[in-house]
Amino acid sequence: MTQSLQAVIVGAGPAGIRAAQTLVAHGLRPIVIDESARWGGQIYRQAPHNFTRSSKQLYGFDAPKADAVLSAMDALLSKVDYRPNTLVWNAEGGQLDVLFEGSTSVIDYTDLIVATGATDRILPFKGWTLPGVFSMGGAQVALKFQGCAIGQKIVFAGTGPLLYLVAYQYAKAGANVVAVIDSSHFSQQVKAVPALLNQAMVFAKGVYSLAWLKAHGIAIHHGATPIEVKGAQSVEKLIWRNTQGEHQIDCDAVATGYGLRSESQLADILGCKFVFSNAENSWIPEKDLSGRSTLQHVYLAGDGAGIQGADAAEWAGELAGLALIEDRQLKQHAKHSTRSHALAGYLQKRMAFGQGLNMAFQDPPNWARQTTDDTVICRCEEITAGDIRQTAQSTGAQDLNRLKAMCRVGMGRCQGRMCGPAAAELLADCTQQSIVKVGRLRGQAPIKPIPFLQNPTVKTMSCDAKEDE
Amino acid sequence: MSQHTAKTHNGQLVRLVELNRKSIQIFINGEATEALEGDTLLTAVLTHQKAIRQAEFSHSDRAGFCLMGACQDCWVATEDGTRLRSCSTLVQANMRLVTPKAKP
Fold first, then answer.
1. Is the pLDDT of residue B6 over 60?
2. Residue A345 within a domain
3. pLDDT tens for residues A44-53?
């Protein structure tokens, strides 16, 4: 069994790394495929080799955790088949199609752990395609990975734990943070405190960031929504609204995001069943507490299958690894199941914290209803809220894929990664359905754009492979 | 060693730290431009100007968005027509990029 078994892990963030470590500890040599040049995922993203900041400077409060995860992978390099800079763009029949340095090849697997992570969840406002508007995570990448600020006068607008953390990191690095605009009300955040205390350390970091920003005189507006960025060629000001009315701030950059959304395209293409998650207010790949998907020998770990954060990703990665070992009956002893139970316990406790976060960080009230017709929703295809409403009305489109077919929202190069959640909210609102009913955008190969291939050895794509354009 | 203070600055991105990296030369629209080793193409371009590409339909300027390879809004062309995702491609000496012309 062991000889014919080939485990593959997709993603080298905290979940993928802990999964790899678990498999190696049980005598396997997994292939670890990662799109980035260096391991760590987004949260523990490493700067290029010639950068010199310490891990304390890069990861702040989380430096010890980052060090532990990054050094765990470092110790695994001779024991796994590590494939950085490699994009999995399709999956079919026990094979992954991957792109590396411009050519594609096929990787066979018998067991697969999908740890594909997350990106920012975006709720667009007018003008968000102007140069100078970046996602919250993108703003963090600019600083962590490139040592740059996204502008000279920066507003952080949206909600979620990253909002205060990134604003704090920027201000501390010497950037000019002119305001933090949080759609949640402070009272909601106070109400969420009991649930948040489930993860006292994580909670404390949030409180610390907020207090630090206030102590340094940075304006923080709760219950406030960004409504328009104005500027001739790039950001010049942000218009925002609260119960007192409309206000404006001069700025040359805006970072925005409303929590995170799972990168679930690979799970989708594999054929995993999806389930609606109230916590994320969206469809996510279904898994049991150990990370087993609805497909045999396919496991899901980390934020790619529901947002739980980096600590939970480490537990889920290890747990998925242990589940794989158990399912293949490679080694089973009492210690193994004790560890599995402990990890499952941590994850359940983390769920209560997640509910607290959802209470603390809420979307702008009636975001869909308040969004004007001329607001671009899909930045690839430049489809506006008005286009979506008109299409829904004139074609009777009730679900997202139908809407996409009719007006191209979510059909561009990003495959709805940026506009999907917003398009779902708008369609639900204008057809008076629940967000559950409008469904989710189907993933399609290639998962991300790949070049026209000159490589003669490339495997022929099956004839039903869907074309995006 | 390069001097990258936030002097009058036409770029979108501002260098804050990690300034003591080796300076390399690239070409943006034929003009010799300074970048630092370890810069992504996006950083190399956006520390000098506001935009990196134009949208296909409206031709409005774009400067990327997610910086983590998801939004696909930062693709840039080289003079030989190769297209590169600028947020996830590191700069190399003498690269020749084509971007929207800087506006006055």
1. no
2. no
3. 999 999 999 9
Structure confidence at residue A421 as a pLDDT band (50, 70, 90): very high
pTM: 0.94
Residues A406 and A419: their CA atoms lie apart, in Å, by 16
Size of interface A-B (CB pairs under 8 A): 148
Residues 310-329 of A with CB under 8 A from B: none
Q: Please, are residues B71 and A379 in contact by the beta-carbon 8 Å criterion?
A: yes
CA dihedral sign, ordered A362, A365, A368, A373: negative
Over residues A204-220, the mean pLDDT reads 90
Percent of chain A with pLDDT over 70: 95
Number of domains making up chain A: 3
Residue A180's region, left for phi above 0, alpha for psi from -120 to 50, else beta, is beta
Assign residue A420 the CATH number of its domain. Answer: 1.10.10
Q: Across the interface, do A132 and B15 touch by the CB < 8 Å criterion?
A: no
Residue A216: how many CB atoms within 10 A of its CB? Answer: 11
ipTM for this model = 0.93
Q: Which pLDDT value is given to residue A1?
A: 47
Domain membership of residue B87 as a residue range: 23-98
**Res. A26 pLDDT band, cuts 50 70 90:** very high
Residue A300 has pLDDT above 90, yes or no: yes
Rg (CA), chain A: 22
A363 shares contact with chain B (CB less than 8 Å): no
Segment B70-97 shows an average pLDDT of 96
Tell whether A445 is covered by a domain.
Answer: no
Please name which of A86, A87, A59 lies closest in space to residue A71, comparing C-alpha atoms: A59
Domain boundary among A310, A332, A354: A332
Q: Is A454 inside any structural domain?
A: no
Mean pLDDT, all residues of chain A? 92
Task: Choose the mutation target among A148, A154, A229 for the interface with B, i.e. most B CBs under 10 Å.
Answer: A148
- Contacts of residue A121, defined as CB under 8 A and 6 or more positions apart, other chains included, come to A160, A257, A258, A259, A260, A261, A421
Q: How far apart are CA A388 and CA A400, in angstroms?
A: 10
Q: Considering the domain boundaries, does residue B35 fall inside one?
A: yes
* Closest in B14, B15, B38 to A151, CB measured: B14
Q: Which domain holds residue A384?
A: 367-430
Sheet holding A237-242, edge to edge: A225-230, A237-242, A245-250
What CATH number should be reported for the domain holding residue B85?
3.10.20.740
Residue A280: is its pLDDT beyond 90? no
- Asked whether the beta carbons of residue A135 and residue B13 sit closer than 8 angstroms, the reply is no
